[in-house]
Predict the 3D structure of the following.
Amino acid sequence: MIRMFAIVERELRKFFRSPALMLTAMIFPLIQLVILGNAFGGKITEARVGVVDYDGGPQALRVHEAFASVAANIRTFKTLRYSSDKAAQEAVRAGRLDAAVIIPPQFSRRVLAGENPSLGLLVDNSDQFLSGSVEAEMQSLTDALNQPQVQQRVVNNIAMEIVELYPYVDYMKFLLPGSITLAMFVSVMIGGGMLYIDDKARGVHEGFLVTPITRVELVLGLVSSGALKAMLAGMVLTLLGSLIAGLGVIFQPGALIQLALMIFATSFAFNAMMFLMMVRVEDPLVPRAMFGILNTLLYFPSGAVYPIAAFPPWLRLLARVDPFTYAVHGFKSVLLKEAGFQAMLPDLLFLLAIGSIALVLATRLFKRTL
Amino acid sequence: MSEQTGAIRVENIVKRFGDFEAVKGITLDVKPGETFGLLGPNGAGKSTLIRMMTTLIPITSGRAFIDGNDVDADPDAVRRCMGVIPQALTSDINLTVEENLSIYAKLYSVPRAERRKNIDELLEAVDLTKWRDAETKTLSGGMRRRLEIARGLVHNPRIFFLDEPTTGLDPVSRVAVWEMLNTLKARRQLTVLLTTHYMDEADRLCDRIAIVDHGTLVALDTPANLKQSVPGNNVIEAQFQDPPGDWAERLGALAEVTSVQAEGSGMFRVLTGNGSRTTTELVEMAVHAGIAIRTLSVQNTTLDDVFVHYTGRQLRDDLVKPEAYTLPTPGMRP
């Protein structure tokens, strides 16, 4: 045991003596959290919509009034008057407008006569998100215009009432579980993968191999020191990230214990997997090259930045075996849902199981000779 | 375990990597308390040999015993009784001198009280006591090498392996390392096996020297005996202005000359049994032929000559620029 702790002692002393490397590991996910958290997930406001009115009748006025109320209230878009549909179309194409509404001639007469009146909507669908928002807003406006002037006594339309389980979750909060997981991943990649292969290349491991340390002691020493570093990164990110994203859950002792368990299981699983991947690698370039690939392969399919429900089947399959998914899910249930220990238990068990399997395999594959 | 006589004993040891045989059946026996030098050009197989002895790579066939322990059968016993200093400086530069030593003492499971005592003694011996709390990155190359030497001895081994202990050091630091090694060896009754590129180092430190080339042992004896085994006791190095094509043969015809080696740019290396007589004749011949002598030196045979004699090449071929170096001809060996 003393020999295993000597390995851990060496790694941690080095870690605390020159923390620059690990600080970078923590800063990267923090920056991502702040930038992505603010860039994505916002609601569209002040999109520019051109209006071409060929009608000018009383029903067209109702449309103008509806637009004015949107501009004054939820501000999804504001309107600009255009004289011809051609000019409006050009403006959309040139990017001066995001969409254009055409009120055709005879619109008012058709409405009153019940002759299938229609409004034209021209959207710039090169930006799906923006055009989708404008379309949705227009649809609801049209629905409102379709309401009869005089309400029926008994409403026989089906209505849906939406119940939100949690207080409003903005995108930054949604992103935080992923950022915490990412901090541990980066820490494992640098503190576990890269430093380990660099040590191998420098001949440091040769120095260990001529001592009586056993294979198990050496592997456990390396894995646990890497996991300790990752845990530290995870803890820092959980605390700072929760403060930045405005989550108060970290002030509850029960949640803190659950978070600590998740941080431990994630660090352990990631480190054991990393060690398994690196156990026979000699070239210091390999972990650097793998960094980007693994980052994309594990982080993005995990549901950390975009919901898994939107994935095609093959990507869902990847998400299902990706330990990142379980880490993100576990952190989400503690941080965003305060769902209790039971909710994160499956994630915890999955991470511990995959970590243990990786550790056993890595120990088997580890060569006690050069 | 088997009965053994030496501190290090290697019997017909072979290492094969695929089809390539790096070590082709070497047998040697290092006596307790001896300092044994392993010389050879790069790629000769000395690193492979030392790695087999120090349990770092598996032995293909043959046997090796370190202090009576079979390397193949009981590697942990071997690891406990030997200290190994690799060629690369591997101490952690962010850790202090003492931390580096202490971590290795723990890797060898040295008990706490003994650890403290050993580290104190070793720091004293390698003259780093006042640097014990300094981070290793602040040390000079020579000091770092001394730290590595101390690190190899934290568990009081009886056998000490050093791979090129002074490579990359300035001459003053090299002498300091040699003195330290000699002191440590005497104080701790160490058996030392070292590899080196430097002939003066081997000459100065080693009781016996083995020359390895192409995976085989080509010579093994004391430095003095090895030097005597080379025909000729002196080496004349002379550089001539525009010597004629048959100059090497004419030099070879001088009295008591045993071999002549042309080294390019008019430089010749002449081995002779009688330095002063050959030199006199050489100068007379040059004057007679009207050829100017640019430089001339006469030395005793060194281990360098021994090395060239046994392996047919300079020890540090790789350090000599190819264009300045002419390949030895088959006829140059006496």
Notes: Chain A has a mean pLDDT of 88. The two ends of chain A are 23 Å apart (CA to CA).
